[in-house]
């Protein structure tokens, strides 16, 4: 396929999932994969959706010629979703597998959204308070002080003026530095593998990256095992789709399995999953009971991980709210002292 056409098939993750959900609905209605692709193509052409129509057309032609579904979806969907399509077609459980994968994706999205909502709100309020401090120190207070009949000296006023001057000179640099350090920290959390990493994790660092990797590994392994894939094949299929950190733990699990470890809790005890999740797996037993136990654990692991992360980030949230309250009190004190000086 020409490079230009391949570029036309690059679309957002949201649109990919919308297309997948619509495709699942056609399959639920009793259509075959070929009939569903044809119906999707016709409806997309009717409403002028070029990307959706092109993708459905490629899938239709692929299925019509008898080629694997993954060859028609290549360059259209992300690799993880492609793997799910391929496995579903091979195991003749496409609809059930897509629904399970979609549910787990929604759970992970809700988990990320709830965690970031806890962080973004105080950060947004802090940004507003810092903006108010900058405006007060650069415009509001100097104009009022210029009308004072006698010089006004108070520690709160001096602190606001000095802080506003620092924000004016170094605010943008500090913000860019903080964003850069945060991106570097996230990159380390996904790629850095070293003995020091495990020591830092015990101190609470890289907790978010570890937690999200644990949720992803637990849910994806449970999904593949539930749809008749062996544990060895599940670990092998997931390694190319994972980041280096999660891939390291998947490789450790594969090594434990190769050494003859039978119990699922021992295979997955690589330092990625929390003791609470491992405890649930240990109580699930062996063989089929272990698969059902892993599935139940996967359905509840996002809630467990969320509670754990919220307990860990209380110190950061307390620090943010403490800074916000201190700045607000400082602004009120400086404003009050200025108004008292003008009224005298």
UniProtKB/TrEMBL annotation:
InterPro entries: T2SS_GspF_dom (IPR018076), T2SS_GspF_sf (IPR042094)
Transmembrane portions of the chain: 120-141, 167-188, 314-334
Membrane topology per record: Multi-pass membrane protein
Keywords carried by this UniProt record: Cell membrane, Membrane, Transmembrane, Transmembrane helix
Entry's Gene Ontology cellular component terms: plasma membrane
Pfam families in UniProt: T2SSF
Annotated localization: Cell membrane
Domain Type II secretion system protein GspF positions: 36-135
UniProt name for this protein: Type II secretion system protein GspF domain-containing protein
Taxonomic lineage from the root: Bacteria, Pseudomonadati, Pseudomonadota, Gammaproteobacteria, Alteromonadales
């Amino acid at each position: 396929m020409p490079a230009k056409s391949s570029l036309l098939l690059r679309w957002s993750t949201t649109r990919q999932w919308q297309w997948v959900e619509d495709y699942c609905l056609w399959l639920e209605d009793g259509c075959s994969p070929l009939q569903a692709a044809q119906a999707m193509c016709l409806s997309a052409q009717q409403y002028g959706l070029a990307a959706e129509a092109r993708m459905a057309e490629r899938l239709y032609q692929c299925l019509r010629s008898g080629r694997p579904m993954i060859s028609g979806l290549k360059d259209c969907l992300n690799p993880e979703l492609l793997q799910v399509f391929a496995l579903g077609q091979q195991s003749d459980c496409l609809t059930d597998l897509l629904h399970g994968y979609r549910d787990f994706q929604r759970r992970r999205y809700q988990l990320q959204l709830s965690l970031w909502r806890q962080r973004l709100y105080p950060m947004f309020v802090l940004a507003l308070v810092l903006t108010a401090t900058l405006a007060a120190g650069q415009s509001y207070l100097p104009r009022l002080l210029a009308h004072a009949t006698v010089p006004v000296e108070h520690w709160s006023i001096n602190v606001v003026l000095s802080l506003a001057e620092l924000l004016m000179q170094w605010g943008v640099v500090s913000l860019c530095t903080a964003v850069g350090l945060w991106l570097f920290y996230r990159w380390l959390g996904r790629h850095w593998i070293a003995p020091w990493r495990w020591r830092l994790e015990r101190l609470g660092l890289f907790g978010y990256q570890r937690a999200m990797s644990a949720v992803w590994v637990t849910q994806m392994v449970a999904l593949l095992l539930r749809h008749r894939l062996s544990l060895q094949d599940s670990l092998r299929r997931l390694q190319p789709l994972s980041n280096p950190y999660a891939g390291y733990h998947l490789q450790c699990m594969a090594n434990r399995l190769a050494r003859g470890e039978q119990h699922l809790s021992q295979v997955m005890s690589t330092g990625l999953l929390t003791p609470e999740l491992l405890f649930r797996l240990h109580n699930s037993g062996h063989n089929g009971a272990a698969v059902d136990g892993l599935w139940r654990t996967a359905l509840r692991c996002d809630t467990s991980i969320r509670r754990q992360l919220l307990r860990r980030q209380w110190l950061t949230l307390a620090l943010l709210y403490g800074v916000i309250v201190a700045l607000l009190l400082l602004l009120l004190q400086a404003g009050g002292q200025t108004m008292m000086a003008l009224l005298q």
